[in-house]
Amino acid sequence: MRIGERQFITAEKSETAESKRSEKRGALKKGGVPADSVSLSSKAKEAADIALALKETPDVREGLVKELKAKIGNGTYSVSGKDIVQKLLNDAAGLA
User: What b-and-e string marks burial along 28-63, b requiring 16 or more CB atoms within 10 Å of the CB?
Assistant: First the structure.
C-alpha cells in the first residue's frame, strides 16, 4: 500500500510541476523572453479618468469671461461694497 501511495504523490507532483512549466511557456514572447503584463486597480483607473477629465477642462471659463467683459463694457457690472469687504477679510484670514 505505501508504495502505491508514494507513486500517486510523485505522479501528482510531476503533473503540478508540468502544468506550472506550461503556464510559464504560455506567458513567453518570441525568443523565450517572459511577456510583460500590467494590471491596474480600480482606484488607479479612476484616478486616470479624473486626470484625463482635468486635462480636457479649460483653465479659463470663456463664457464667464465674455459675460463679464460685456457687462464691464456696457457699464452694467457692479459689485457691492459689502462683497468687496467680505472678500478682503476672507483673503486676510486665509479663507479665500
Answer: eeeeeeeeeeeeeeeeeeeeeeeeeeeeeeeeeeee
Q: Is residue 58 a contact partner of residue 64, using CB atoms and an 8 Å limit?
A: no
Note whether 46 and 40 are within 8 A (CB). no
| Per-residue pLDDT in tens (0 to 9) along the chain, 96 residues | 455 555 555 545 555 555 566 555 555 556 666 778 888 888 989 999 999 999 988 888 899 999 999 999 999 999 899 999 999 999 999 876
- The answer to whether 35 and 27 are in contact (CB under 8 A) is yes
List the grid coordinates of 51: 486626470
- The structure's pTM equals 0.35
